[in-house]
């Protein structure tokens, strides 16, 4: 992986990483979104272990972004549109703790922004059910196998991409059309 020394990092889990990765890849200021695993104790987890619920990791996406172009707060806005933060340990057809909604904050400032965002969403009653997104300190991110990277781009006709990912990606595209890469 190339160096992103001048970039900030955000780490989110919101169901299948293919959906979240593709939703963020289309946003200006996001230099790279990488699919992987976070939130568990196991070293070097594999897709098979995580997807079968054999670890305590979540499918997650590490986002490298230019804070001069896009703010962490805006990334949070996108995250809360790209998935349903009221579904406990699932997103649509994907069920299990590995598909939980989670934000892995990298520092105290990110934690403050996350807490403020969730409080505002709840105050504004954006969702009819409580937000169940875990807010936990970032520990480690394990990059997923190469065939998972840019999966939506490489497999646009995949049935899962068409039926599950594409609607989420398009929702982000409609909601944040002024933030899309050209």
Topology:
Layout lengths: L7 E7 L2 H9 L4 E9 L8 H5 L6 E8 L6 H11 L7 E2 L2 E2 L5 E5 L2 H16 L10 E4 L3 E3 L7 H4 L4 H17 L7
Parallel strand pairs: 6-7
Antiparallel strand pairs: 1-3, 1-6, 2-3, 2-8, 4-5
3D architecture notes:
By secondary structure, this protein is an alpha+beta fold. The chain has one domain (about 10-175): 2-Layer Sandwich (Peptide Methionine Sulfoxide Reductase, Chain A), CATH 3.30.1060. It is about 35% helix and about 20% strand. The strands form two sheets. A six-stranded mixed sheet has the order 7-6-1-3-2-8. Strands 4-5 form a two-stranded antiparallel sheet. It is globular, with a radius of gyration of 15 Å. It starts with 7 loop residues before the first strand and ends in a 7-residue tail after the last helix. About 35% of the residues are buried. The model has no long low-confidence stretch (mean pLDDT about 95).
Entry summary:
It contains six helices and eight strands, in the order βαβαβαβββαββαα.
The total strand number stands at 8
Shape: globular
What CATH calls the topology is Peptide Methionine Sulfoxide Reductase, Chain A
What is the makeup of the main sheet? 6 strands, mixed
Assign a percent range to the helix content.
25-40%
Q: Which keywords apply here?
A:
182 residues; Peptide Methionine Sulfoxide Reductase, Chain A; alpha+beta; 34% helix; six-stranded mixed beta sheet; two-stranded antiparallel sheet; single chain
């Amino acid at each position: 992986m190339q160096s992103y020394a001048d970039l900030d990092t955000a780490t989110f889990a919101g169901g299948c990483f293919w959906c979240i990765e593709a939703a963020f890849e289309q946003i200006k200021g996001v230099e790279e979104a990488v699919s992987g695993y976070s939130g568990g104790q196991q070293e070097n987890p594999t897709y098979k272990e995580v997807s079968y619920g054999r670890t305590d990791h979540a499918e997650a996406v590490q986002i490298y972004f230019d804070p001069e172009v896009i703010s962490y707060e805006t990334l949070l806005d996108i995250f809360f549109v790209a998935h349903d933060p009221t579904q406990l340990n699932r997103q649509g057809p994907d069920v299990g703790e590995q598909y939980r909604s989670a934000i892995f904050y990298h520092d105290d400032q990110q934690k403050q922004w996350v807490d403020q965002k969730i409080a505002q969403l709840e105050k504004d009653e954006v969702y009819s059910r409580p937000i169940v997104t875990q807010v936990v300190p970032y520990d480690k991110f394990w990059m997923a196998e190469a065939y998972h990277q840019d999966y939506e781009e490489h497999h646009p006709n995949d049935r899962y991409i068409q039926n599950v990912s594409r609607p989420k990606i398009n929702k982000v595209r409609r909601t944040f059309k002024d933030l899309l890469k050209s």
